[in-house]
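Help needed: design a sequence for this.
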C-alpha cells in the first residue's frame, strides 16, 4: 500500500535534529525554487514537524511539497536523504494502481484528519466554544452514540462538552476523528488554519 505524501514528508523531517530542522524551516522562508513562494515567518513560528508538513502541502500541494523538500535537503548537503525521499515517492506512486487511487485518497484523508484531532486535543478543547453544532453533526452522521450525545448536551461548560465529545469519538477510531476534522473545516475553518491544519488537495 502506498504511503501518503504527508507521511513521507513527516518521516523525512523526523530524521532531522532540532537545529537541522530549524535550518530546513529557514530555507522554506527563502526563494528556494522558481515559482515557489517562500513561506512567511509568521506561518512557521513555533511550527512543529506536523504543522510544517501541513503548511507545505497547503502552499505547494503534495507534488510541490515533495519537490521543494528534496531541493532544500540537497541545498543543505543531505543528498542521501533527498534521494531516499525521491525514491520512496516514486515507489509509492508506482505501487498505487489507478483503480485504487480513490480508496487511497480516502484513507489518506482519514489518517490526516485523525492525526490532527489527536495532536491538537488540548487546543481544540480550550478554544471551541460552540460545541453543540459540532456534536449535532457527528450525531447525525452516527459517529457518536445516543448516551454520549446526551452527556455532551448536559455538560455545563464548553470545555466539559469538548472533553466528553473526545471520549465519545474513541469507539469510532480514526473514521470518527476524521469526520470531526471535516466538520471543523466547515464550522471552524479559521481555527483549523491557525493550528496548521489543511484540507486534502
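Sure. Designed sequence:
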Amino acid at each position: 500500500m502506498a504511503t501518503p505524501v504527508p507521511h513521507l514528508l513527516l518521516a523525512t523531517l523526523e530524521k532531522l535534529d532540532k537545529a537541522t530542522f530549524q535550518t530546513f524551516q529557514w530555507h522554506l522562508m527563502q526563494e528556494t525554487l522558481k515559482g515557489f513562494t517562500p513561506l512567511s515567518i509568521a506561518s512557521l513560528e513555533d511550527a512543529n514537524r506536523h504543522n510544517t508538513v501541513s503548511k507545505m502541502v497547503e502552499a505547494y500541494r503534495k507534488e510541490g511539497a515533495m519537490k521543494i523538500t528534496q531541493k532544500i535537503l540537497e541545498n543543505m548537503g543531505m543528498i542521501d536523504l533527498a534521494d531516499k525521499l525521491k525514491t520512496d515517492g516514486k515507489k509509492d506512486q508506482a505501487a498505487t494502481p489507478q483503480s485504487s487511487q480513490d480508496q487511497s485518497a480516502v484513507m489518506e484523508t482519514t489518517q490526516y484528519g485523525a492525526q490532527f484531532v489527536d495532536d491538537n486535543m488540548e487546543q481544540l478543547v480550550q478554544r471551541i466554544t460552540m460545541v453543540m453544532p459540532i456534536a449535532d453533526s457527528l450525531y447525525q452522521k452516527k459517529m457518536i452514540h445516543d448516551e454520549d450525545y446526551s452527556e455532551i448536551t448536559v455538560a455545563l461548560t464548553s470545555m466539559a462538552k469538548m472533553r466528553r465529545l473526545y471520549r465519545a469519538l474513541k469507539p469510532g477510531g480514526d473514521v470518527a476523528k476524521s469526520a470531526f476534522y471535516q466538520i471543523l473545516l466547515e464550522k471552524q475553518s479559521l481555527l483549523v488554519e491557525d493550528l496548521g491544519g489543511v484540507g486534502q488537495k
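The domain at 5-96 is CATH 1.10.533.10 (Death Domain, Fas).
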